[in-house]
Design brief:
172 residues, NADH Oxidase, 8 helices, alpha+beta
């Protein structure tokens, strides 16, 4: 799939078919996510793949009961590894780790779409509950919960602001 086509056609999907995703497909998605740029090439991001029904249900509860999370065949939690980045970048390390994680996340979303899968970036969740549930170490932060599966809906394109409203040349 052409890159610009993937960018323009990708949508947040919240309904998935009840079809499992092969491990090699998940690994290909994660490889694409890991190819994203990162500050100092420290790759201060980690990914937790969840397929266990009980764990997916607990993630759903931590994410304000967004039930589509538990219904996805796989859920990938994207984690900023602040410790890894802060070793070099000190106080800026947290920001850079978050940027690294979100760059990887966007690659994950685009790769999902290009491979005929669908995903949704979920940012509304109890960070502490997710960290506890998944056993995240100190100085890491869950950035997003990403349910992934074969789409069972085709949402229409959301409205976007005109470029004139959001682009500034030279100064604000």
């Amino acid at each position: 799939m052409e890159c610009m086509e993937a960018i323009k056609e990708r949508r947040s999907v919240r309904r998935f078919k009840d079809i499992p995703i092969e491990k090699k497909v998940i690994e290909e998605l994660l490889s694409a996510a890991q190819m994203a740029p990162s500050a100092g090439n420290l790759q201060a991001r980690d990914f937790i793949v969840v397929s266990n029904k009980v764990t997916k249900q607990k993630l759903t509860e931590a994410a304000l009961d967004q039930s589509f999370i538990a219904q996805a065949p796989a859920v990938i939690v994207v984690v900023a590894n602040i410790e890894r980045s802060s070793r070099i970048y000190k106080s800026r390390g947290e920001l850079y780790a978050i940027q690294d994680a979100t760059a990887g996340l966007m690659n994950l979303l685009l790769a999902s779409h290009s491979m005929g899968l669908a995903a949704c970036w979920v940012g509304a969740f109890d960070e502490y509950a997710v960290s506890e549930l998944l056993g995240l170490p100190y100085r890491t932060k869950p950035i997003a919960i990403v349910p992934v599966g074969y789409p069972d809906e085709k949402p229409s394109a959301p409205q976007r602001m005109k470029l004139e409203k959001v682009v500034h040349w030279e100064t604000w």
